[in-house]
Amino acid sequence: VYGTNDYPVLLATRFACDSTVTTHLTVNPAYNISRTVTICQGSSHVLPDGQAVTAPGTYTTVLPTVNQCDSTIVTNLIVRQNYNINRPVSICQGDIFTLPNGQTTTFPGVYTYHYFSIYGCDSTVNTILSVRTQYAITQNVGVCQGHLYALPGGGTTGSAGTYTHIFQSIYGCDSIVTTNLTINPNYQVSQN
């Protein structure tokens, strides 16, 4: 029990007189404290003895109180992870991409944004944006009058004109093939 107690002792002096000696005994507490501390990866925590630590674990520190009694402080250190996420994304040329912060872009590049995780630690999201090429091919062809031409998108025609067909590239982007078809006349020549 902590506190001060008096312990009187009755003694006889050498002259046979009573003497009372009272001992005032004070019992000072020694503390035993346990605590849990959480930090983010890359940070440090200073223990009660002044030591800085960065690794998770249980650290025991013994310190004297003001009355020179031992006090034990147990620190359970938890280190929360920082996240670094690479997110590759591709769009087709001419498309618009919305970045994690709500802005839009059409340009390739690495877009980095910093957030806090649920534990308040840094989380970095790197959006690696690729822009896939759209192809536009123009071909000028001619056929003889009365013949048919097989168009790239399927079907045939014997009429002059411009024909456009849209295909998907291997990346899913539009590829446009424009065919300018000319009909060449047939000539009949008679010689005398």
Number of helices: 0
User: Quick one: how many beta strands?
Assistant: 17
**Average predicted local confidence, pLDDT:** 88
Order of strands in the sheet with most strands: 3-7-6
Distance between the termini: 141 Å
SS-derived structural category: mainly beta
What does it look like?
- The chain has 192 residues and is mainly beta.
- It has no helices and 17 strands.
- The chain has strands at residues 3-12, 18-27, 32-40, 45-46, 52-53, 57-64, 70-80, 83-92, 97-98, 104-105, 109-116, 122-132, 135-144, 149-150, 156-157, 161-168, 174-184.
- The strands form 7 sheets. The chain has a 3-stranded mixed β-sheet, with no helix packed on it.
- A hairpin with a 5-residue loop joins β1 and β2 (18-27).
- The protein is rod-shaped, with a radius of gyration of 44 Å.
Topology (SSEs and partners):
Layout: E1 3-12, E2 18-27, E3 32-40, E4 45-46, E5 52-53, E6 57-64, E7 70-80, E8 83-92, E9 97-98, E10 104-105, E11 109-116, E12 122-132, E13 135-144, E14 149-150, E15 156-157, E16 161-168, E17 174-184
Parallel strand pairs: 3-7, 8-12, 13-17
Antiparallel strand pairs: 1-2, 4-5, 6-7, 9-10, 11-12, 14-15, 16-17
